[in-house]
Amino acid sequence: MSRILVVDDDPALLRALAINLRARHFDVETAADGATALRHAATQPPDLVVLDLGLPDMDGVEVVAGLRGWTSVPIVVLSARDTQWAKVDALDAGADDYVTKPFGMDELLARIRAALRRATPSPVEPVVTTPAFTVDLAAHRVTRNGSVVRLTPTEWHLLEILVRNPGKLVTQQQLLREVWGPAYDGQTNYLRVYVAQLRRKLEPTPARPRHLVTEPGIGYRFEP
Q: Is residue 69 pLDDT above 90, yes or no?
């Protein structure tokens, strides 16, 4: 069963889309704003995202760019913006398809099926093992030297995003938006504090991290 994340600030439309998709045997998650959508995508990666552009907290194009910083999940934009430049902006940011409102449900479903067929599966192993520690993504548990490492919810959320994207650079802005929300976009000191805490708990030599690596001025990378 494919998991679809539907993002729209119109409650009636959100409910209608969820009902129709579930009737076609999709597993559906919903979000009414960009920050919630990014959090859902990080904690429960969907197989496809249906995304409105007119969101209350950020532009949908920002959500597309944020997702594209770390995932290749298919994104079908569903928007009332019908100008050519709006479509170009969304597609250039990384969207896979663009459907304008008002729309026909059959057409949207066909676009969703086509996007899912084109997608390249990239399953994440439920258990990620490094020489220093092991992360069980399904159980939300980290162990080191056979003992459970206690992490705060924020520490876990930050670690999970990095671990789900091994070897990939995740920008500071992406991490701040997904873990703390768009209002914290410039608070890089939050990241420094929490990454330092994770290193103290997980890295054999925190001052010379091997697994939670900094890309100065840009972001962080998890190296297994």
A: no
